């Protein structure tokens, strides 16, 4: 599969370029950077539509910024190019609207607020635990440059927990140098608490999930939200 990485100069984009280059199944055919600065070993484009046309890409992997993501989605939808989306910052309402459009227009995309397998399990376990507790809160910790808060992972965990419990789950965000991406879900009952914690200590942690999403993209229908749908079900 021929892969374009949007946000190729960013912290996640660089790691994705490396993972795609090292994979035997995929070929890195271009990187998108809004500044157009060169990137070692990647043909850099500033125009996503032109990049897709020139490279005949099969999939666009997007790790950019919240203000760029919907424009990139419009371009990929117009060209019917599937997308693997890691950029966070879209609201649950926006994601739901994109899900409807994707089905209507027969466009494939996988959006995962967290591609780390352990984080996906943390969300699943939190959803399983929440009906047994009176209250629960989510604390997410990220590096100081992260633009959006709460994180996409915290919002997804909150939605998953609220769906089964019917209770509002508060979220708290910590931004500090030295952190990468971490989350705790704390559930409480009189006399006891249960804490479920996941730590991404480096960005390599997200790569198996990203590569799995690229591999599965041609087999899905519409916009899938959450890696759990391709991790735990055989599509
Ligand atoms: P980052 O280091 O700031 O990288 C973002 C990159 O996007 C920048 O290098 C910027 O570079 C580029 N960019 C900005 N506008 C663009 C556009 N219109 N088209 C193409 N590229 C553009 O951020 P990061 O830490 O890599 O995170 C990127 C996103 O991934 C964030 O939303 C973050 O929350 C999310 N994230 C998701 C996961 C997950 O598992 N889903 C994990 C970690 C992070 P130029 O301006 O030079 O192009």
Count of beta strands:
11
> What's the pLDDT, averaged over the residues?
96
Question: What's the number of domains?
Answer: 2
Q: What CATH architecture label of the largest domain applies?
A: 3-Layer(aba) Sandwich
Largest sheet: 7 strands, parallel
Order of helices and strands: EHEEHEHEHEHEHEEEHEH
* Highest-level CATH class of the largest domain: Alpha Beta
How far apart are the termini? Answer: 18 Å
What structural class do you assign from the helix and strand content? alpha/beta
Strand order of the largest sheet: 3-2-1-4-5-6-11
Bound molecules: NADP nicotinamide-adenine-dinucleotide phosphate
CATH T-level fold name of the largest domain: Rossmann fold
Q: How is the quaternary structure best described?
A: single chain
Shape: globular
Low-confidence stretches: none
Rg over CA atoms = 18 Å
Report the portion of residues in β strands.
Answer: 15-25%
The CATH homologous superfamily name of the largest domain equals NAD(P)-binding Rossmann-like Domain
Distinct helical segment count: 8
Helix coverage percent of residues? 25-40%
């Amino acid at each position: 599969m021929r892969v374009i990485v949007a946000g190729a100069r960013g912290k996640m984009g660089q790691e994705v370029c490396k993972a795609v280059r090292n994979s035997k199944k995929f070929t890195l055919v271009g990187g998108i950077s809004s500044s157009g600065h060169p990137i070692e070993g990647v043909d850099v484009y500033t125009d996503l539509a032109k990049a897709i046309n020139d490279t005949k890409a099969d999939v666009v992997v997007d790790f950019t910024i919240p203000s760029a993501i919907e424009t990139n989605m419009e371009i990929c939808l117009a060209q019917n190019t599937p997308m693997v989306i890691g950029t966070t910052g879209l609201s649950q309402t926006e994601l739901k609207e994109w899900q409807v459009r994707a089905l209507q227009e027969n466009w494939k995309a996988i959006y995962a607020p967290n591609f780390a397998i352990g984080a996906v399990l943390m969300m699943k376990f939190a959803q399983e635990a929440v009906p047994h507790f009176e209250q629960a809160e989510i604390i997410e910790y990220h590096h100081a440059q992260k633009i959006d808060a709460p994180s996409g992972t915290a919002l997804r965990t909150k939605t998953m927990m609220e769906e089964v419990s019917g209770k509002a789950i508060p979220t708290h965000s910590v931004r500090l140098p030295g952190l990468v991406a971490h989350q705790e879900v704390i559930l409480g009952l009189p006399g006891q608490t249960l804490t479920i914690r996941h730590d991404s200590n480096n960005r390599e942690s997200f790569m198996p999930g990203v590569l799995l999403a690229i591999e599965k993209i041609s087999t899905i229908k519409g916009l899938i939200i959450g890696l759990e749908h391709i991790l735990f079900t055989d599509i």
